[in-house]
């Protein structure tokens, strides 16, 4: 049986030592003092460990079952979902006008992490609802908001996102689902959607589907796509539940992982839908959900690696195998624990330095979102827009890689389902795919975000790193181990950007052939910045007389590892990028 | 339903254009002309596609079932196994004295690849038998050989390897299985073994288990381990089957993949066993099986990637999504096929250049084994001993990585079991673990093989590369694209070796902390050498007027991709290695 304990101390470190949230001039942040966030995170951690984590294996084994048109979730999910609702965990950062607690997004992210680590498939029911909530909140009429949001905030009703169809996922302009306008202002929605997470289940009284469809007679392609609210059960004007809508589950997909979440084929057969936002502007409205969802998926990536890492550490300390090459460390035992071996440590340090870097980067990003939304800060908005594909793409690639690495620590036992390590890898795998496959994230980053607003945000990004290095260059403790590698990595990234500028104009393939490498490179530079900032914060805490010296010293040592062992990857990515598109595009399609 | 077609043309290319097998002065190679090998491989490909491939998904879905102490394999496995036996595919490189065909190992490897690609789990029944055959052939008495080998060559009886116990895998000195000497010279074996692939099944009349155990009163630890032949059913002196031995299946493990192969917990309760080889020298005898098995596992790694790649290419050509950034390539269709997009090509070229490099490296290694065994060439033996952990460790890491990459081409469909891409990833995952987890391969390489025979073999390895570069430096077509990158990568590898020499003496952790990076680095250098040799061979074929110009030109272009896009990884690995053990070993175990 795998273990999971919320890393409350590290969550607090990121919020307070790194981000110093309570000192930030953002509405709502004044409440985020150490005691308050500590109490919330402590409680979230307890729920994660006691309620959600034991159901993780259950969800994987049982999966969801479609019986007589109704989806049944695994045993225990319903009771746990009730506990989440009662505890108010579904409503943390939602608008108080609709029953939410109005907490900042950064606080929501920190509290969510333990839930996602403990049971990713379970947490998706709430996560999708939150995305649908955000879209309605941003684009709905007052009437729509009053009608749907309070029940979605409380998760009495859950939500979904319906984009993909059998023949199109990324290229939604090809979609075939139709919306026929009705005399009463509603629409009849007809078509099939696939891969609908939480598409149906027995956890809520109603499910509010957000569905992309084309209004008949509208523009061709992506410009004719609109977004609709399609409730599973029609909601009467008085808020009571009315008739069953013409929405049904075609089947449940058998997946590699996240078996606890029902991934449905949804059939809309003239279902009643209500336009959300402006007609033919459905993609814009959908992106409100997608950007938030992408950061959430980036969190899933490292949250699975965190769980897997905790188990790998426990196993490495427990399993006796071989002797330390420098002399027995457990001389009274039959062998030393795995953790004495340098290559096991190399593996564990890779995992640890990734997870902690990702946590910092994700919350730092959430802080930018708060700054953008609560303070109307356009620069913060531009920066998080630039970095969203990096948070999603880099962190889910690496999250999967390190879930696999954690599995490897177990040797043969890692391959046996009973030990639970396979599930972390199988569950983490989806995060690289959904909400835009990572290749699409790389395309978004290089093909769109770099040049956004005349390249203003990427220039601000480099300026931010330069400023940080300049401000701290007198700090000898930081210089060699942190600032110098960060400078070198940032220089590599700039050189890659320069290559794209100089060559991408002539032939855009020269830029796009390097997009994936660039996304990873930028991830490393962002993590390098985070680690330099975290090391600085930890040094300051130690200088300030912090009592938990082992924690802060470990933080600095882990950062040193990342800078020494991970950051050199930028040289490789740059070398690849600099070879351009010639070898990538050389073959005729027939010769693959 | 996934596809699979044997890459016969490329198998032939490696045997004849690259290795020029029929020109080599090795006994048995004189028969390996193009027509003969072509006919064999053509037939192997047919069997793989028609018989084994359709059972791959069946095996994954059904798995093996333990009923009343007997393991039942998935539907169709038994009939297919009969076909393999009848076709003589189980006996290709076995000793003619025991019914084998006596073909070289390189030919066996080439014919095996399609079987492994088509159905890895199925092929393991035969693969394990071959390993057990080799151990008995090398270490058995004449009587043992006469008694067991003919039936194992024909696969009427299959074989297994029993090493791992619940509390020990890598560190076999801890094993508890006991062997009690009997008056008649046999032993009573008592203990439990786990992870026994093909441990029981319904494909054969008998199963010959090779079991490591400690003879009572022998030396402590690994020096007291002996190897025993323990038949499932006792074989009478006249060769007929006698009583059931005291061997039973405890359970079948539920695994992440290779469901078609029965992975058993085996219980030995005073089972009759016969010493194989010398007492207390069981590890030496077992290594006869393990070295062969490790090369076979390296083949599994890329063979799964090959299958996954074939499907990814088909999907990328079929799936219409988006438009080429340089202008529509399928203007009459609703969208262009995925394969027009640079990042999809980057992904497919990664896969293709890996698989073809791995095929060349594996057969080149098999050729060294033939040279060692058939010509008694000690240098070839030393070189393949050095490279075995690289073939196993690098190729299985990358094989899994690219099976995952192929899955990624499918987007959401890659995560759905129905499409079959998940199985390739799940099946490929085991190859990184069994026959010595890849961290153990790295330890073997850096901790043992580099220094073997005074470092003679690694020096010969570098000399071989240097000589190749020198011999071809006048070849302008090779120089910039192939020889220069090979030279640079080889220099990086030498620098890493130098770092180990200079620092590993003081503190062996400085070497072992870099062992995994070194293994990957050496893999890249070996692949770089293969690609340079293949490019040269392809250029010569074109100059010689070969008619299939597209094939040879594609080969050269694929090689250029590898050299440009993959070989730069050596710089990153060197940078990591050069940071030594300090950051790796910095933390106390309690602070992870």
UniProtKB/TrEMBL annotation, chains A, B:
Residues 461-588 form the Acetyl-CoA dehydrogenase-like C-terminal domain. The keyword Cell division does not apply. InterPro entries: Acyl-CoA_dh-like_C_dom, Acyl-CoA_Oxase/DH_mid-dom, Acyl-CoA_Oxase/DH_mid-dom_sf, AcylCo_DH-like_C, AcylCo_DH/oxidase_C, AcylCoA_DH/ox_N, AcylCoA_DH/ox_N_sf, AcylCoA_DH/oxidase_NM_dom_sf. Residues 78-156 form the Acyl-CoA dehydrogenase/oxidase N-terminal domain. Keywords: FAD, Flavoprotein, Oxidoreductase. It catalyses: 3-(methylsulfanyl)propanoyl-CoA + oxidized [electron-transfer flavoprotein] + H(+) = 3-(methylsulfanyl)acryloyl-CoA + reduced [electron-transfer flavoprotein]. It is an enzyme of class 1 (oxidoreductase). GO terms for molecular function: flavin adenine dinucleotide binding; oxidoreductase activity, acting on the CH-CH group of donors. Residues 161-269 form the Acyl-CoA oxidase/dehydrogenase middle domain. It comes from the Bacteria. Its EC number is 1.3.99.41. Its cofactor is FAD. Residues 281-444 form the Acyl-CoA dehydrogenase/oxidase C-terminal domain. Belongs to the acyl-CoA dehydrogenase family. PANTHER family: ACYL-COA DEHYDROGENASE, BROAD-SPECIFICITY LINEAR ACYL-COA DEHYDROGENASE FADE5. Involved in the assimilation of dimethylsulphoniopropionate (DMSP), an important compound in the fixation of carbon in marine phytoplankton, by mediating the conversion of 3-(methylthio)propanoyl-CoA (MMPA-CoA) to 3-(methylthio)acryloyl-CoA (MTA-CoA). This is 3-methylmercaptopropionyl-CoA dehydrogenase. It comes from Yoonia tamlensis.
């Amino acid at each position: 049986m795998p273990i999971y304990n919320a890393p409350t101390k590290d969550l607090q470190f990121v919020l307070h030592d790194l981000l110093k949230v309570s000192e930030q001039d953002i509405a709502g942040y004044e409440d985020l003092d150490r005691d308050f966030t500590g109490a919330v995170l402590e409680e979230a951690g307890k729920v994660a460990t006691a309620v959600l984590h034991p159901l993780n294996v259950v969800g994987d084994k049982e999966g969801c079952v479609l019986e007589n048109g109704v989806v049944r979730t695994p045993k225990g999910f319903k009771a746990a979902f009730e506990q989440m609702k009662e505890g108010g965990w579904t409503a943390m950062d939602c608008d108080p006008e609709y029953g939410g607690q109005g907490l900042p997004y950064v606080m929501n992210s920190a509290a969510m992490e333990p839930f996602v680590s403990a049971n990713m498939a379970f947490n998706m029911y709430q996560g999708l609802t939150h995305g649908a909530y955000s879209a309605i909140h941003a684009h709905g009429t007052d009437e729509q908001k009053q009608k749907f949001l309070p029940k979605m905030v409380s998760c009495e009703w859950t939500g979904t996102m319906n984009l993909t169809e059998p023949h199109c996922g990324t290229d939604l302009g090809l979609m075939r689902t139709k919306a026929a306008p009705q005399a009463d202002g509603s629409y009849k929605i007809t078509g099939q959607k696939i891969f609908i997470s939480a598409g149906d289940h027995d956890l809520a009284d109603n499910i509010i589907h957000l569905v992309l469809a084309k209004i008949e007679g509208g523009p061709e392609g992506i410009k004719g796509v609109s977004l609709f609210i399609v409730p599973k059960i029609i909601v009467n004007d008085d808020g009571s539940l009315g008739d069953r809508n013409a929405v049904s589950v075609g089947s449940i997909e058998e997946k590699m992982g996240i078996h606890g979440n029902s991934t449905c084929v949804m059939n809309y057969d003239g279902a009643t839908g209500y336009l959300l936002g402006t007609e033919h502007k459905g993609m814009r409205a959908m992106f409100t959900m997608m950007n938030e969802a992408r950061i959430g998926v980036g969190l899933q990536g490292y949250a699975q690696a965190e769980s897997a890492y905790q188990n790998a550490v426990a196993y490495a300390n427990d399993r006796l195998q071989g002797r330390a090459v420098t002399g027995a460390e457990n001389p009274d035992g039959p062998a030393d624990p795995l953790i004495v071996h340098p290559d096991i440590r190399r593996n564990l340090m890779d995992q640890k330095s990734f997870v902690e870097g990702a946590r910092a980067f994700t919350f730092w990003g959430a802080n930018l979102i708060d700054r953008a939304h609560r303070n109307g800060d356009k620069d913060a908005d531009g920066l998080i827009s630039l970095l969203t594909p990096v948070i999603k793409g880099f962190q889910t690639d690496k999250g999967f890689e390190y879930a696999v690495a954690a599995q490897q620590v177990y040797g043969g036992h890692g391959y046996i389902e009973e030990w639970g390590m396979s599930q972390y890898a199988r569950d983490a795998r989806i995060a690289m795919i959904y909400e835009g496959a990572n290749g699409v994230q790389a395309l978004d980053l290089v093909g769109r975000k770099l040049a956004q607003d005349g390249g203003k945000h990427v220039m601000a990004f480099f300026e931010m790193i330069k400023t940080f290095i300049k401000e701290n260059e007198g700090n000898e403790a930081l210089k060699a181990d942190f600032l110098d590698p960060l400078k070198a990595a940032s220089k590599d990234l700039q050189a890659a950007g320069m290559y794209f500028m100089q060559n991408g104009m002539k032939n855009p393939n020269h830029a796009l052939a390097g997009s994936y490498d660039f996304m990873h490179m930028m991830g490393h530079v962002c993590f390098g910045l985070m680690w330099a900032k975290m090391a600085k914060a930890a040094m300051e805490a130690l200088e300030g007389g912090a009592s938990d010296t082992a924690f802060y010293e470990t933080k600095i040592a882990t950062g040193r590892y990342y800078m020494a062992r991970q950051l050199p990857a930028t040289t490789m990515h740059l070398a690849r990028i600099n070879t351009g598109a010639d070898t990538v595009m050389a073959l005729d399609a027939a010769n693959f």
